[in-house]
Specification:
single chain; alpha+beta; D-amino Acid Aminotransferase, Chain A, domain 1; D-amino Acid Aminotransferase, Chain A, domain 2; 2 domains; 11-stranded mixed β-sheet; 9-stranded mixed β-sheet; 7 helices; 20 strands; globular; binds pyridoxal-5'-phosphate; binds 2-OXO-4-methylpentanoic acid; transferase; BCAT_family; pyridoxal phosphate; branched-chain amino acid biosynthesis
Amino acid sequence: MSIETKNIIVEKVKTSKIDQVDFDNLAFGSVFTDHMVVCTFKNGEWETPTIMPYQPITLDPSSKIFHYGQSIFEGMKAYKDKDNDIYLFRPLDNFKRLNISAERMCIPQIPEEYFMNSLTTLLQLDKEFIPTKEGSSLYIRPFMFASGNGFHASPANEYKFIIACAPSGAYFSGKVKVLIEEKYSRSANGGVGFAKTGGNYAGQFYPTQLAVAKGYNQVIWTDDSTHEFIEEAGAMNIFIRINDTLITGPTSDRILDGITRKSILEIAKDQGIKTEVRKITVKEVIEAAENGSLKEMFGAGTAAVISPISSFGFRETDYDLPEIENSFNQRLKKIITDIQYNKSEDKFGWRYKV
Ligand code: PLP
Ligand code: COI
């Protein structure tokens, strides 16, 4: 049966898959909800979004996504509070960033009402899939790609906007060990590093695999021209604490402007923590590790939340971070997740009730 509501066509599943989900043992992003949003851009306009049963999609072998990688995505989460009300965290920032990525990759802009209405309708429909267990949430993946055909290396004339969701647990299962990379680069000036485009991630897989083989979980990228400055990690922005100052690098056209990053900066300032947004040299991090002033290092992102880094490697040497009490990362994680799960007042106005 198909019903049209709020300019969305809704085709519901006949039987839900909810019984197949083991909510006590959720991995990250590997089981999916009953429905997905699909919206097609054709003849110069977006068609009415459809919510349909989660299913494979069929594409022509010449679809430009396969050849030229015209694809972008976002990462968001939906949270449930103790009353089973559903919340998003700063969703309009994801919406805006999706369109920033779209512009850079020559993908048409998605209108706000298409994004927000289809997302909130999907969440209402699949609300039983939003986990309630501490540390779990519904990971939401809005994405757009070139579905139009042809081997000509130019932007496609047809696109899909899709939202798929996965009830998920933590992104990292244990301690996070990172390797500061100085051979390979994630992005370059004037490139696409600030965009959430698939190729930024595919390009990281090989150097990350080399790091994983040496026992690390993620690579910390340095700038492509000198490799002297810390940029970000594969799936998160990086914060370091030297003595009592929390420092993160400035965003640029090489770095993703993380929503968690900017929220943490605001929370830290509000907490009276001294913050600095400035270039961080690898040299100063090594020196701080050696003289004991490096107190903490953590990654920040939607999937990663706040992930403390237990050690980092640089040129064959591993540097362990101390285990400290009352760490900034624990304090900031509690504040941000309490806002996300509606456990505390939201003085910043970031929570969005669905
Ligand atoms: N940097 C990269 C490369 C990412 O993939 C992510 C995740 O989205 C982040 C940083 C953190 O961004 P956000 O906090 O908006 O999720
Ligand atoms: C996110 O944190 O939402 C991301 O997009 C990172 C991803 C690589 C899992």
